[in-house]
Write a structure and sequence with these properties.
The structure holds two protein chains of two kinds. Chain A is an all-alpha fold. Helices cover 74% and strands 0% of the residues of chain A. Chain A contains ten helices and no strands. In chain B, strand 12 and strand 13 form a beta hairpin. The chains are: A mainly alpha, B alpha/beta.
Chain lengths: 278, 319
């Protein structure tokens, strides 16, 4: 099997430096540290009285899920927004596009390398969930769904990141743009819905904007809570009963991600139509 | 089989209102070393980048080995090894890994790259640096590694944009030997530089470009013969400078006359001292002269004067 040489090179470079291992170490330190604090505070509150360990396990799982989602969502822009722009900055871009690698090969190789780091982080965090299983209240299926949610969010957000990386030639601009976009998708859509919800007296006509919010994917894990919230927000106006809101969100985001990858590949092509300068 | 490896016809490149390459045409013979000389901003890099399929054209045609480079850029890239004027390297890769990556990216099988890389490193004098990290190499070594990278997929054409810039004299000589060896191996080499002396010792053919226009193209010996024995004269006239310039251009032995920023006339002249004296006497009888001197007969200087002036045309020596 022929592995994309760019992917092989990127992985070699990433794994050769201390940065990747430092990232995994810090990631686990933050995740494990907060999990320990959460467990300790719960234990202290309960004192010596009866404690429902399965409820504790469930709460710990939800806490870890949200924390891990936040960490990954924070890491992805930093990992992906420099993928193409850094090639411009260190003047290796011309040499790269002068090879037999197609623009799509370049984008795919870079994206896969960045996602492999995210995959490594998720994989490295799995032993922490062993502790959750020890307490009970969570099934392996739910853990599988959580991993799928994290991967989906990472793939979608990475596609936006690499697109911005190809649009901005300066890595700093690409990183800033990427974080602004991430914040807009998570916080901006929530904020707008919050505002319209109060303006329109317990109804938000902008609820479809939430399709862009990656947090919607958690409906897969907690369908009832999410559906109640959606019904409340939309006054039951969501039209498709046979297709969950999160499923529509995945479809919409996949379409946007595909468009982003297309733009990135188009921008990487030095002979693209309509290019103004060289 | 045509003897032209690279054929450029009416190539035009515009950036908005600015014309970087202005309708140039030339051919480069198979197995030759073609020197592309001109001052900074002349259009050398733009032309090379278009041939390297890194930049689109505005109009015109470029063919390598008879095939248009614009029809299938990917196929063209198999035929060229490109070395840009400014380039970066992946500092955390070892020299052998660097070549392995670019070899595989150029479409070669991993095992083939592993087999050919030692010979390439030997050719560029980096055989003992195979395991070294790229960031530990000197500037000259990085330049040679980039040359090895351009050769890794064994392209018949090499496009080298200012490959000697920033190199010390010893490294320049080493690079010259390597390029001569590559020509002997059958590669067609296009090398750009703003230093004529550098190219005159190496190239078989030369093209002189400035202001996006090709001024001279031809075999090196023929082009150099055009300027042999030429002297650069400077003449100061009190008034009617333009009339004096036009008059000078009509005189025997005057190859070129241009008005400088200082208001003097610079003349490329191919006559001995007695001829210079006659020219001075004839000029003094028509114009009020306050200054006349021979500023030198440096080939480089004459060349740069020719290419530096964009307001007047020069006849190309050959096609």
């Amino acid at each position: 099997m022929n592995i994309n040489p760019l992917l092989a090179k990127e992985l070699r470079l990433r794994m050769r430096t201390w940065r990747s291992f430092g990232t995994v170490f810090l990631y686990l330190l933050v995740l494990g540290g907060f999990a320990l604090l959460f467990f300790a505070s719960f234990h202290l509150r309960a004192g010596w009285s009866y404690m429902d360990l399965s409820q504790l396990g469930r709460n710990l799982f939800n806490f870890l899920a949200m924390l891990q989602f936040a960490l990954i969502f924070f890491l992805v822009p930093g990992l992906t927004a420099t993928l193409i722009s850094s090639e411009h900055e260190r003047q290796t871009f011309d040499l790269l596009v002068c090879t037999q690698l197609t623009p799509f090969n370049i984008v795919a190789g870079k994206l896969t390398a960045a996602l492999s780091v995210i995959f490594l982080l998720i994989l490295a965090s799995l032993p922490l969930y062993g502790f959750v299983f020890l307490l009970g209240g969570v099934s392996p299926g739910e853990l599988a769904v959580l991993i799928a949610i994290l991967l989906l969010a990472a793939v979608i957000n990475s596609s936006f990141g690499i697109m911005l990386s190809s649009v901005f030639r300066k890595p700093a601009a690409a990183v800033i743009g990427s974080y602004v976009l991430s914040l807009a998708l998570v916080g901006g859509t929530l904020l707008l819905n919050g505002l319209t919800y109060s303006l329109f007296h317990n109804y938000s006509p902008l609820y479809p904007l939430l399709l862009l919010n990656p947090l919607v994917l958690f409906e897969w894990l907690h369908p009832q809570i999410a559906r109640d919230a959606l019904n409340h927000l939309s006054r039951g106006a969501y039209p498709w009963r046979w297709l969950s809101f999160w499923q529509v969100s995945v479809l919409v985001n996949f379409a946007l991600a595909a468009a982003s990858l297309y733009i990135a590949a188009w921008k990487v092509n030095p002979l693209r139509a309509g290019k103004k300068s060289g | 089989m045509s003897s032209a490896m690279i054929s450029v016809k009416n190539l035009l490149k515009r950036y908005g209102g600015f014309t970087a390459v202005d309708n140039i045409s030339f051919e480069i013979e198979r197995g030759s070393i073609f020197g592309f000389v001109g001052p900074n901003g002349a259009g050398k890099t733009t032309t090379l980048r278009i041939i390297a399929t890194l930049l689109s054209k505005t109009a015109g045609e470029v063919a390598i080995d008879g095939r248009s480079i614009f029809e299938n850029p990917r196929e063209t890239r198999k035929m060229i090894g490109y070395m840009p004027d400014f380039f970066g390297l992946y500092d955390d890769l070892r020299v052998s890994e660097y070549l392995q990556f670019y070899g595989e990216a150029a479409g070669c099988r991993a095992i083939d790259v592993r087999r050919t890389a030692p010979a390439l490193l030997e050719l560029v004098g980096l055989a003992d640096k195979s395991g070294a990290f790229v960031n530990n190499l000197s500037r000259g070594m990085k330049q040679r590694l980039c040359l090895a990278r351009a050769l890794v997929h064994q392209p018949p054409v090499l496009l080298l944009d200012e490959p000697a810039s920033g190199l010390d004299p010893r490294a320049r000589v080493e690079l010259r030997h390597i390029l001569k060896e590559l020509q002997r191996m059958g590669h067609t080499i296009v090398i750009s530089s703003h230093i004529l002396a550098e190219l005159s010792q190496l190239c078989t053919h030369i093209g002189v470009i400035s202001g996006g226009r090709m001024h001279l193209v031809g075999p090196m010996a023929e082009v150099l013969a055009l300027f042999e024995g030429d002297t650069l004269l400077e003449m100061g006239v009190l008034e009617r400078a333009e009339e004096a310039r036009l008059w000078l251009l009509e005189q025997e032995g005057v190859k070129d006359a241009a008005l400088t920023n200082r208001g003097t006339l610079e003349i490329v002249y191919s006559g001995d001292k007695s001829a210079q004296a006659q020219l001075l006497s004839a000029a003094a009888s028509r114009f009020a002269l306050y200054h006349f001197t021979a500023t030198g007969n440096n080939l480089e200087e004459i060349f740069m004067k020719l290419t530096g002036e964009e307001n007047h045309e020069h006849q190309p020596a050959s096609g």
